[in-house]
Amino acid sequence: MGFLHLFASHVVFLFLSSSLVFLHGAAADQEEALRTYIVQLHPLGSTGGGDATSSDHDWHHAFLIKSVPSSAEQDDKRQWKPSSRLLYSYHTVFDGFAARLSVGEAAALRALQGVASVREDRRVELHTTYSYRFLGLNVCPTGAWARARYGRGVVVGVLDTGVWPESPSFDDRGMPPVPDRWRGVCETGERFNATNCNRKLVGARFYSKGHRANYPTDPSDAAARTREYASPRDAHGHGTHTASTAAGAAVAGASVLGAGAGEARGVAPGAHVAAYKVCWFNGCFSSDILAGMDDAVRDGVDVLSLSLGGFPIPLFEDSIAIGSFRATVRGVSVVSAAGNNGPEPSSVANEAPWMLTVGAATLDRRFPAYVRLGNGRVLYGESMYPGKVDLKNGGKTLELFYAAGGSREAMYCMKGSLSAADVAGKMVVCDRGITGRADKGQAVKEAGGAVMVLANSEINRQEDSVDVHVLPATLVGYQEAVELKKYISSTPRPVARIAFGGTRIGRARAPAVALFSARGPSVTSPSVLKPDVIAPGVNIIAAWPGSVGPSGLDGDARRSNFTVLSGTSMACPHVSGIAALVRSAHPSWSPAMVRSAIMTTADVTDRQGKPITDGDSGERADAFAMGAGHVNPALAVDPGLVYDIEPADYVTHLCTLGYTQREVFKITHSAVNCSELLHANPGFTLNYPSIAVAFKDGGGETSTVLRRTVTNVGAPNSTYTARVGAPVGVKVTVAPTTLAFAEFGEKKSFQVRVDASAAAGKDSAEGYLVWKQRSAGQGRRRTVRSPIAVTWPME
């Protein structure tokens, strides 16, 4: 489930169709010499940037004229004109443009006065009938949905692979009118026009210039034959799935070919959706993402949902972090996926402190599909194949086949690796890895196999992301896989049958942190704990395009309005929906207040009242795996206290990290003197809802004081008392220990002293700070919880 997997159930290489291939006549042979660059400029008119009265497009074109010779000046008359090199002009979340340049032209542009940075375009990857109920959302007059008006009046912008507008999840019956402030459009294109938008789907745009510029031009390439729409229409499914998870309408009788049946709803079913197609079959390019963010903020979205990203990189090189900063300044809540590179430490992506970063967790819903071996043993597995539920007898007994001792390709059931003579009519065991899980089932079916057992490797452990396979199949954990293979090798004719158990709810311990969910601590900002929270991200059922089979495979002719996917991509829109609910309940709140409400009300115990565990290990999940905990929307809409952050505070925070003035400008577009700023703010710490402290390993300071300020957003005349659970070996003191608020909106500050002088030989330690409201006859006593994480990073 790494970032190189487009979504968790498949390894899919993303490709563009020939209709989107970037061909430019006779200039095609120049293509290899040109690359896409994103150019950041100093503010218009400040230092040689051009005439402040000219349009942004003209301003950007002026820079290209200075660095790109015109065709008249070229020996090669086929060279493109400078104007043809400009891909995007950015206006809102970024000052600059994207253009096609040679290495030499990029260097020349970089040397011009008024240019802040020139960096090459970067490719990133894409990171429910029941999940809303698991989150405690229900139709109740006093519930979170009612108090937040189901998210009405809020627009959630989804940057992804587009949208399938005919999905019943985007039906606008019962939706309020489109907000008057909305400035978005429904962009026409291939099989998409203005009538595809409505009061639910209020906007749709697409961005392909970055892809067309970076993609191979050979039309004979196999990728060119992959179907794609040159429009906002989703040919892949990922975007439709995430958009419906965040704000899909209620759909009765939803299921995946009969499995997981129930009523589908998005987390904020009353919110509007705007789709920005920035990802295609071969990934998502930063130039397109920035263009989508630029339009989304200008259109008037309230929440941006980004189920995409890469590996941790410095913030001043991260286009998503840079664009999201400007979005935050303009009042937009930016929610992003943490990435699927877990359980490796420090694998979390989208680490910027102004973003809400989301990891993935499990549900208590299971799809059992048992393997009954010939020796009488029964192995637990899971599958969403729509087989007949028959736990007593199961299916037909078949001979088992596993390519032990054969080729590596056959063990992994790679396409074309299996011999019909070996597998025809048999139950084939396939090792997990290298190719997608659903692809293995297709390979078995093409070779004549009757059933597949997908066997987890040691690295996958007991992780159980299911798929809608094209043949009867089940996924077994690593322990079961070891026993299965041992049985196969113990007898000359091993046999087994599969018994499908349907859908089971409430019997599994949940939530638990998903094995694949990326972990902290943050590489770029160790004084900010990431991820922020976890949310449902395993086996999530949501809307699906009508042109794609539920397995996502090209050869799957079945059709379903819904399918199942797993990944932090699925967790992210759950939190985007919660952010929409909080924004609807509290329209004047800043993005930092919205994030604080979601974080400080998160759960750290599962549905059984026990500590949330890390995957299937049974061990307690730490703050680097789950952040503040598992989201609880019912509490988030009424948090009691919130930690607010002004945009200028993020600038000061970047200075505390040792960023240079130039690097801070690249991120924030603010010209600052860090020395002066830090001198004016001695002892500054970011007013973040979680508390993270990084001490140098083997020397340096062993104690620090952090300052925090909370705002009362609950009842007046409220008093809160501090309770501290100090990390092992670390002393934590809070002063004052009582906060009394006379009025709504009143602010109170406190200090947290962290003394780690006695904590020798540790890598990390964690605890918590809780502000507990005293009973005052006002109903629920609010609890405002902040995790405390202390690390000793190696120098």
Automatic annotation (TrEMBL):
Residues 151-613 form the Peptidase S8/S53 domain. Pfam families: fn3_6, Inhibitor_I9, PA, Peptidase_S8. Keywords: Hydrolase, Protease, Serine protease, Signal. Residues 399-483 form the PA domain. Residues 216-244 are annotated as: Disordered. Belongs to the peptidase S8 family. This is Subtilisin-like protease. It comes from Triticum aestivum (Wheat).
